[in-house]
Amino acid sequence: MEISRTARGANRPALSLHIPEPATRPGDVPDFSRITVPEAGAMPCPDIATPEAQMRDMPYGLIRVLDEKGRAVGPWDPRLDEDTLRAGLRAMLKTRLFDERMFRAHRQGKTSFYMKSLGEEAIGAAQALMLEAGDMNFPSYRMLSWLMARDYPLIDLCNQIYSNERDPLRGRQLPILYSAREYGFYSLSGNVGSRFGHAVGWAMASAYKGGDAIAVGHVGDGTTAEGDFHEALTFASVYRAPVILCIENNQWAISSFSGIAGAGATTFAAKAIAYGMPGLRVDGNDFLAVCSATLWAAERARANHGPTLIEFFTYRAAGHSTSDDPTRYRPAEEAAQWPLGDPLERLKDHLIALGAWDAARHEALAAELTAEIRAASRQAEAVGTLGQSKPNPREMFEDVFAEPDWRIIEQRREAGV
Amino acid sequence: MEISRTARGANRPALSLHIPEPATRPGDVPDFSRITVPEAGAMPCPDIATPEAQMRDMPYGLIRVLDEKGRAVGPWDPRLDEDTLRAGLRAMLKTRLFDERMFRAHRQGKTSFYMKSLGEEAIGAAQALMLEAGDMNFPSYRMLSWLMARDYPLIDLCNQIYSNERDPLRGRQLPILYSAREYGFYSLSGNVGSRFGHAVGWAMASAYKGGDAIAVGHVGDGTTAEGDFHEALTFASVYRAPVILCIENNQWAISSFSGIAGAGATTFAAKAIAYGMPGLRVDGNDFLAVCSATLWAAERARANHGPTLIEFFTYRAAGHSTSDDPTRYRPAEEAAQWPLGDPLERLKDHLIALGAWDAARHEALAAELTAEIRAASRQAEAVGTLGQSKPNPREMFEDVFAEPDWRIIEQRREAGV
Amino acid sequence: MPAMTMIQALNSALDVKLGSDPDALIFGEDVGYFGGVFRVTEGLQKKYGARRCFDSPISEGGIVATAIGMGAYGLRPIVEIQFADYILPAYDQLVSEAARLRYRSNGEFWCPITVRSPYGGGIFGGQTHSQSPEAIFAHVTGLKTVIPSNPYDAKGLLLAAIEEDDPVIFLEPKRLYNGPFDGHHDQPLVTWAEHPLGEVPQGHYTVPLGTARVMREGREATVLAYGTMVHVCNAAIAEAGIDAELIDLRSIVPLDIETVIASVRKTGRCVIVHEASRYGGFGGELSALVQERCFYHLRAPIERVAGWDTPYPHAFEWDYFPGPDRVAKALKRCVEAVA
Amino acid sequence: MPAMTMIQALNSALDVKLGSDPDALIFGEDVGYFGGVFRVTEGLQKKYGARRCFDSPISEGGIVATAIGMGAYGLRPIVEIQFADYILPAYDQLVSEAARLRYRSNGEFWCPITVRSPYGGGIFGGQTHSQSPEAIFAHVTGLKTVIPSNPYDAKGLLLAAIEEDDPVIFLEPKRLYNGPFDGHHDQPLVTWAEHPLGEVPQGHYTVPLGTARVMREGREATVLAYGTMVHVCNAAIAEAGIDAELIDLRSIVPLDIETVIASVRKTGRCVIVHEASRYGGFGGELSALVQERCFYHLRAPIERVAGWDTPYPHAFEWDYFPGPDRVAKALKRCVEAVA
Ligand SMILES: Cc1ncc(C[n+]2csc(CCOP(=O)(O)OP(=O)(O)O)c2C)c(N)n1
Ligand SMILES: Cc1ncc(C[n+]2csc(CCOP(=O)(O)OP(=O)(O)O)c2C)c(N)n1
Ligand SMILES: [Mg+2]
Ligand SMILES: [Mg+2]
């Protein structure tokens, strides 16, 4: 042993405080050399009944299925049919085109707020297709592609975003903080992390009732630092809840790089080990890998083997929200350099490599979706955009409780609505 | 890959909710067969500069130094001098005797509340001796042996426990929730877990100032479920704080066995892996192992290598507190069967094996300490016990703020004090 | 009707509920095999199985978050927070999630959870086993807050709370668990067996939330209280020899404003009493409401009697606790004030 | 004296402090390189280095816990919580630890931390970027709560808060960051450059906590407000054509009770205004205090104007926000009420 009491104090360095810093800042050349991209197909795929103790290396690998040539390789290939692949592509493209239009709508003053999923569209789309109608997603605000994959009406999205008279949430909630129970999409809120434990409770309830529905929950890399994250994982582990707990590690939390959430010390997937549950680290820009990891975790959950933590390794290609300007804190060209590519392009290339897609069909799809989005958005604009139209102010006083008490009744009267 | 979309739904079992249960309950024969006790000396002792990635098996072992014959063996032997060992023994014995007397004092109505450290005395005693005067302990309520090892005046302990006129905390705090800044002992409070992050902040402050003092923080196994635990570890990891974060896994949290905190899924030490920091699992009833692990972590911290998480594997041999009756939820004979023995006996046997101690000296020490404790307790009783004596009620209104505002001044007047 | 302590009455409510509603379940720290540190859940795990009543990790935020998720699924979870002092780690879950879920989702999801927690002082529990946090819940739109003062109401209110489709904070005055403590700590404890409201029906009944109970009619002044203070006020009224009307609010959200207003309009005088520290306490809201609605009837300043604006100090339990003497003094001041 | 926005004034206070006290440091979400989502810490990392001003994990509880530990060591941490809506995960740390440390340790440890947080509505931030949580802090013994309404006070109060040896919650009305918004959302924004209190000295000065500012003297009624509502009330007074005295409380703990009482005794009428929802809000405490101390001077019921008892509803910003019309109406009611 190196240490001894006598040596103590001798030649000790002064302590110093370590403040993590990203590799590059605006003006620097983007540098992703710290990121190793393992070959697609290289990770083994353990049986779902494998004990956690035999899977402790999984969090340090990266599950990838699509290789550079757009081929699906290795044991994690989910072997999906072409229709499913095309449904995924459609959902991702629809998300991207919709995001673009709504981002512009914000610039035009039609909405107070917007957030894009740019570069992360594979995750919601894949999970929406892989999970079942009765399952429940406890989403983050970058999960629009789930709703797209499940054909949530565009007009309802637009009305919510414009906070107009037909807003399905009746003007009570910030744009994009949707709730869509029928689509397996739990109510969003501005607070990050505070619904991760709801996913666990919902899953426990399903197990309590002897059902077969499972839950999936999402947080961002930055949000893993909240106590809620730990509490959700603890309950999931203790009661073996049938839940998939996901971290979208998109490298940034507003202006803070993932090192501020601890990424300099280990992977996010490794957090699973603290709870004795499997932790998968997955290429989040690889639609097939996302599908496959989700299916694996879902089957574990459905077989009463308990929860799985998945880190989706991805990149937030746009700003945090309409309130953000990412060029203030990272090189503007970073997104283009992201070593895992664009999830949409990669799935497209795969379909083309399969002979199940081509440039013409892609263009036609884009045109079709653009038209659909334009139509929905125009229809919503006809109802009205922010400030031009809003639900009846009486809605302000509804649903505080199941039944209003005298305060609500009096105040509604005072407000004259 | 085993899973495929077509197989989904086929022959699926119904989900069921897993509620962890301990191996035995009152009336059962105690059963510790689940606990493997590895041989003393078997664990390697890595250099303090070793990267975490090369220490990921440490949390699954158990660092033990004292073998069944009371010999110190293996690379974790801290090679302490005999005076230090005797100082440890003395602190532990003093704690145990003091606990016994105060527990009786509670039965006699002299205090409102008491908590023992029975079976866990090695931890505080060892750490108080291994760490330096400038270091700060953020203790749990089972750390009395730290104060004993540092010769905190018994009379002050008694006055605090009796809430009498000379209570050093002026009657404001529940018995045993001491504060002793001069002794490196941070203010305790009833809330579990909420000071773990203070240890990290204190350590960061020391690093910020370029000092050389480090912090040590403590929580129980049950308390690891609090969000505070995770937040403290996250900050410690991100800023590489010079702190030792300790879990006293005494198998119980009031009536809940450690499985309710997740012990069925993995070890508590393994939680370190989530933060990319070393996690040591240590025989908490082995004074030498506690010393050694503490020194190792302290040297890491002092060398700017950052935090260490240590699980001390031990057993809460007494009830949770004077409000508890453990025979209601676990076999009464469990403590006697605990496979890691009694920390006090084990250190005593070691000293005897070294030829540095004997039964007569032990008896003399016990008699001396008993007399000292009796004297202090009588002296405090002469001041008064609960309800017979208390500080001036004016003290109730002091220290709410540095300076009282009008509310305090008016209310003090109204109270007539 | 059998005599029950408040503990037994609460236990009976839980028993009735677990027995009749398969979607009702209980969890919290030490509530399973052990039956809770105050024994409110005693016997329930044995009777209904660990699936219906089980221990939870020490994580108040996690307990409430999990309960909200279960509620969103369709269950009716009843959770225990071991002491109300320890409810604060769950405060964000209660305010940002439980209280807002129905509103923000336009009624797609809601939160039929009940959060039981022993609260209040009088047991020498010191700073962290004595606090009364009702004010920080009363201010939160979307939460209901209920505080019983006797076994009969405790059972009926708890059943009503559980059956609510909105989140309810159910604060149990722990000093009343075993008897109607009136603040005379130096006198022998009276048991619930000797109190008319210690008689509790075995089966199902509810006491609707938002209905106060007039504990004592009177003409000279109105006393507003809840929890332990109801009994303290009762003693104070008798000792002051004043014909005061004593109103046990029973729930502070929803508040039975009509009963309060009618009484103060009748008496023209009002004393408000709570254990929580005074500044920013719920007494401020009560005082404001009474003043707004009874201004022209008030013949004396509304008095507030409350805990001092200090933390709850262990050794000074009875100096801090607003006992019958302080209440009686305020009552006399109020009645003697000239209009 | 240069004209500063409130953001610049706050930034200047932090700059002065980092420049003069090596034990002062700043951390919080996005406050480092980026300078904070509202840019209050802009340039400070560049000027003083990452050690003095750095980003933190997204963990409000962790931020406050860490700050408390630093304070116990002897530093003077200033932390930012990105929105006051997100302060709730730190509520337990603030109440159970920060507020109680000095008391319970008999002064061995104390907590000289400042917790800055943008709060309040008016920016179409919806439920979770608009709330006003001051009441849940005002009730906590051991915490001070400060709310500036203009650049001059913001800087002086922030410096005073930082120099306090007790924990201070420093709530910044975000709607005032760039101008004295008076509730007329449909009128062009006035900037601080046009306002006398937009003139801010460069160097060090303090505005002592617990001193209210009489914004406007008057004889007909007293209006109590803080934060954005100060400007709304000012507009309302002008529009109502009433000679009201407007008091900006500036800190609600400690409260400048003397100024409040003297004014109400003079005017005999009082209107209390805040953005937070009404029930259980700090207005209740103010109303109770005024009533208790000015009962015999009051010639009309004390009025409260506040946010409705609903969550903060995105699309109904201006229906919810207690704007000049609602305040003017209450003021008229109050002045016209017959004694
Ligand atoms: C409890 C809480 N604290 C702070 C915020 C402010 N905030 C909104 S998003 C965000 C960053 C989240 O980053 P991450 O979890 O990585 O998700 P991403 O935006 O990258 O998808 C922050 C700090 C919040 N919404 N909620
Ligand atoms: C925040 C909080 N929640 C609950 C409690 C009640 N409580 C006191 S001690 C305890 C058990 C703690 O168990 P553990 O962490 O294992 O420590 P041990 O008592 O075994 O040393 C509980 C639940 C508390 N004091 N604080
Ligand atoms: Mg992120
Ligand atoms: Mg324990």
Automatic annotation (TrEMBL), chains A, B:
GO terms for biological process: branched-chain amino acid catabolic process. This is 2-oxoisovalerate dehydrogenase subunit alpha. InterPro entries: Alpha-ketoacid_DH_E1_comp, DH_E1, Oxoisoval_DH_suAlpha_N_dom, THDP-binding. Residues 90-384 form the Dehydrogenase E1 component domain. The keyword Transcription regulation does not apply. Belongs to the BCKDHA family. Residues 13-50 form the 2-oxoisovalerate dehydrogenase E1 alpha subunit N-terminal domain. Its cofactor is thiamine diphosphate. It holds the Pfam family OxoDH_E1alpha_N. Coiled coil: none annotated. Residues 1-31 are annotated as: Disordered. Signal peptide: none annotated. It catalyses: N(6)-[(R)-lipoyl]-L-lysyl-[protein] + 3-methyl-2-oxobutanoate + H(+) = N(6)-[(R)-S(8)-2-methylpropanoyldihydrolipoyl]-L-lysyl-[protein] + CO2. Its EC number is 1.2.4.4. It comes from the Bacteria. The branched-chain alpha-keto dehydrogenase complex catalyzes the overall conversion of alpha-keto acids to acyl-CoA and CO(2). It contains multiple copies of three enzymatic components: branched-chain alpha-keto acid decarboxylase (E1), lipoamide acyltransferase (E2) and lipoamide dehydrogenase (E3). The keyword Nucleotide-binding does not apply. GO terms for molecular function: branched-chain 2-oxo acid dehydrogenase activity. Keywords: Oxidoreductase, Thiamine pyrophosphate.
Automatic annotation (TrEMBL), chains C, D:
The keyword Oxidoreductase applies. Coiled coil: none annotated. The keyword Oxidoreductase applies. Residues 4-179 form the Transketolase-like pyrimidine-binding domain. GO terms for biological process: branched-chain amino acid catabolic process; response to nutrient. InterPro entries: THDP-binding, Transketo_C/PFOR_II, Transketolase-like_Pyr-bd, Transketolase_C. Its EC number is 1.2.4.4. It holds the Pfam family Transketolase_C. One of its GO terms (molecular function) is branched-chain 2-oxo acid dehydrogenase activity. It comes from the Bacteria. SMART domains: Transket_pyr. This is 3-methyl-2-oxobutanoate dehydrogenase (2-methylpropanoyl-transferring). It comes from Pelagibacterium lacus.
